[in-house]
Amino acid sequence: MRILIILVLFSSYLAQSQQPPVLDRLVTIDTNTIWTQQDGYESSDFKVDGIDYFKIIDTTYFIKYRNKGYYLSKDGSGYKIVDIPDMNRYKPAAWDVPYDDINRILGYEFDDENNKGNYRITSKKEGKIDSIGVHVYDPGRNPSIHTGGESNIYLLAYKEGNIILYADYFYVNEAYKNKRYSCFMYNILTDSIKSLSEIILPNAQISTSQNYINSYNPNKIEEYYNRFDNADTYNVYDLGKQSKVNGVLRYGVPNMQLSQNSGFLINDSLAIALTYDTLRIYNFHTSTPIKSYFVPDKKFFGNYFYDDASRSVIFNYVGITDGISYNSVIHIPSLNIIRDTVNNKPYLGRILTRLDDGKYLSHGSGGYLYKFELDLGLDYANADFQAELIENNTFKFTDISKGPIVKWSWDLGDGNKSNKRNLEHKYIKSGIYNVTLVVENEFGSKDTVVTQVNAEDVLSAFYSADILGGSAPLSVSFVNRSFGEATKFIWNFGDGKSSLKENPVHTYKSPGTYSVSLTVFDKDGKFDIRLLDDLIVVQ
User: How many CB atoms sit inside 10 A of residue 255's CB?
Assistant: First the structure.
């Protein structure tokens, strides 16, 4: 059932303003969404020709496209169309709804009057205009012109009474017509306006936290009769403090010339940009690339979606292979591209959000909305490790497991256990041990691998003596402390005497200084010698 509501502004409001209000008519239509089960997905009868942007506002999804807005319920069961025809004379229409008040419609236009630019800001709620602001922008002695729809004007409703305004405009200097732009943040509550230099709003987007706005800027400037095309940059403004817009942060490649908007914010510290043939993840606070990927046959980002559940970025149309566009997924904790998904299904268009039932909502083929399940290939854990013998009976275990692993559990086969990712362990006795590693990823999936290690000592002669000096006759007890499996022992006591015992006792009868050696043999005849010079001193 469709309910048509036409809200007409009262003439008293028109009389109070020198110019006609921007929001002259508002039409809303409540509609139920019809979903049809297809092979592996659901298609709807909800069609929108394009999407300027998609907002998540409280319990409602909001889609804006030119003069129309679509309020979509969180479960996708119904939607409301908001139509604002003839809102102003320049297209695309400049209007929006704020994040914190979905029932308010904001609009503005940028016009010239007496060779000056006028910002007319209108706010409408429940059919009533509750504030009108007019701000004059003087471009100087050169008159601005707005004819034939040559101006592009934009509005992005922010929060706490703030809206961001943008307008292209022209000025005439003799026979030349040059294009300029202005971007401002306007506070409805305080009726104040401040400049946001270096922001080009059509190329901008706000972070999920709404603390930052990111804008691609080609940095094309004109000075008198000279035109300059400086290096392209991505400019980030800190909008976290409403009372103050902080300085701009820039990231990008020096001398970069892109001529396309191919960057976006992931969160309040990371951004992704496609520059030349490289996909880069930046820390925009330091303008430092922290991860880079080669992207063959690149194509700019058509759109992206940050999936909170998997903590991954899904972005579309990064490249083309054999004429087929593909999507990629970047897992943010690991900063790895985990899987590419071939874009050959009608629903794999622009991913808008994940619905309450876990299915994804997308704006796909034909401009319709679709619901579908998508396995991003993130929920996997493949356990593996390397074991390296670094010294006698001591092993170095290095984890080389795959997946978003967050937990490691080792059983070293001799009763010892560890939760470290990498470790070293010494076995007291020689032998073959089963080493078990169990890994768990951040989604709770586990995997186990078992590998045998041979903790057989390398043969190494070593011994100790209970006394190293005294008066003749001096009796000394020697103890074999060799490493490895020794089967034969030859002692030389330095006074011409020897022994084949493992732990002999020898008596020195004459004064002197004596060197002692021990030679050990294993069952295969391999041997090792330990000689300690001037070990025993007899007085």
Answer: 8
Let me know if residue 312 belongs to a domain. Answer: no
Per-chain mean pLDDT for the chain: 80
Ramachandran area for residue 290 (φ above 0: left; ψ -120 to 50: alpha; else beta): alpha
Task: Answer yes or no: is 107 within a domain.
Answer: yes
The residue with tokens 């951040």 is 442
- Spatial separation of the C-alpha atoms in residues 272 and 248, rounded to whole Å: 17
Count structural domains, the chain. 3
312-352: pLDDT as tens digits: 888 776 665 666 666 778 888 777 777 666 667 888 888 89
94 and 183 together in one domain = yes
Gap between the Cα atoms of 304 and 273, Å rounded: 12
Q: 96-125 pLDDT, tens per residue?
A: 988 888 888 888 876 665 556 667 788 888
Name the residue range of residue 163's domain.
Answer: 88-195
CB-count exposure of residue 88 (10 Å: 0-12, 13-18, 19+): buried
Give SS3 for 70: strand
* CA–CA separation, 267 and 53 (whole Å): 18
- The CA–CA distances, whole Å, from 330 to 65, 107, 173, 327, 335 equal 28, 37, 49, 10, 6
Strands 25-32 and 78-83, bridge-based pairing: antiparallel
Return the number of other C-beta atoms located less than 10 Å from residue 296's C-beta. 8
Is residue 433 located within the same domain as residue 498? no
Strand partners, 516: 532
Q: Which of 162, 195, 228 is the last residue of a domain?
A: 195
* Whether residue 499 sits in one domain with residue 442: no
Q: pLDDT-derived band of residue 440, with 50, 70 and 90 as boundaries?
A: very high
Considering only CA atoms, which of 295, 230, 225, 283 is closest in space to residue 256? Answer: 230
Q: Indicate whether 121 belongs to any domain.
A: yes
In angstroms, the CA 166 to CA 332 distance is 32
343 within 8 A of 334, measured Cβ to Cβ: no
Domain C-terminal end among 404, 427, 454: 454
What is the reported pTM? Answer: 0.67
Strands 527-538 and 469-470: parallel
CA-to-CA dists, residue 368 to 44, 47, 171, angstroms? 6, 4, 41
Whichever domain contains 402, its CATH number is 2.60.40.10
- Answer yes or no: are the C-beta atoms of 380 and 445 closer than 8 Å: yes
Exposed, middle or buried: residue 299 (CB in 10 Å: 0-12, 13-18, 19+)? middle
